[in-house]
Design goal:
nine-stranded mixed sheet; VOC_core (chains A, B); globular; homodimer; MeMalonyl-CoA_epimerase (chains A, B); about 130 residues
Chain lengths: ~130, ~130
């Protein structure tokens, strides 16, 4: 069912410093910051040959990653995103196996303009999993 | 400098349950457990079309992930591994930028039989980074 690893998201306390580090210290291709007000984050994409790293920084007081950065002030790996062909079929299959879908259970349009869902980290080894229909 | 994302490692408290979940609930291609006594872990590789997920479970009392699972009993994302062409050149460049290399600073042979180094998570947004020479 799951396909490619679309991205790994890393929440960071200083977006400019993290971008500079990936560009200068790690020598990666780093994009410009993009505000995603619907998702409460500013993101920077790091393009690797086979996938992306998504640096996440809070945008606004209700940002969903404020709590994560309070618990992890230095930052940390926030989630992994797997691609699926049919997000409704994937959701229904996962629910049958007992996995919990976060929120209303209906896909939202994610930061890349595609339908996404998040799965409960307690059901996936402490790992927040995003599914994105591609 | 960094190339492909070689893998994302997820430490899990129950390797059999996590393998079954990736196979049955997420529908992924899941390998057999492999003991890596030199690294104090048993690993299960999950093959995605563009990269791998590495499930990690402690092997022995001195396993380097015992402490992680004590802090995160449900499991969690443990590290990301980026590929490099020349691990000594990468290490020397990173040290010049102020990043700390864990351990002796000399590459060890990793679970895939290739030279690896780990970078201090405090220098990388709370994210443990492995470099693997490919």
């Amino acid at each position: 069912m799951i396909g490619r690893l679309n991205h790994v998201a890393i929440a960071v306390p200083d977006l400019e410093a993290a971008s500079a580090q990936y560009r200068d210290a790690l020598g990666a291709t780093v994009g410009a910051p993009q505000d995603e007000p619907d998702h409460g984050v500013t993101v920077v994409f790091i393009e690797l040959p086979n996938t992306k790293i998504e640096l996440l920084y809070p945008l606004g007081e209700d940002s969903p990653i404020n709590g994560f950065l309070e618990k992890n002030p230095a930052g940390g790996i926030h989630h992994v995103c797997y691609e699926v062909d049919d997000i409704i079929a994937a959701r229904d299959h996962l629910k049958e196996t007992g996995a919990r879908v976060l929120g209303s259970g209906e896909p939202k349009i994610g930061a890349h303009g595609k339908p996404v869902l998040f799965l409960h980290p307690k059901d996936f080894n402490g790992c927040l999993v995003e599914l994105e229909q591609v």
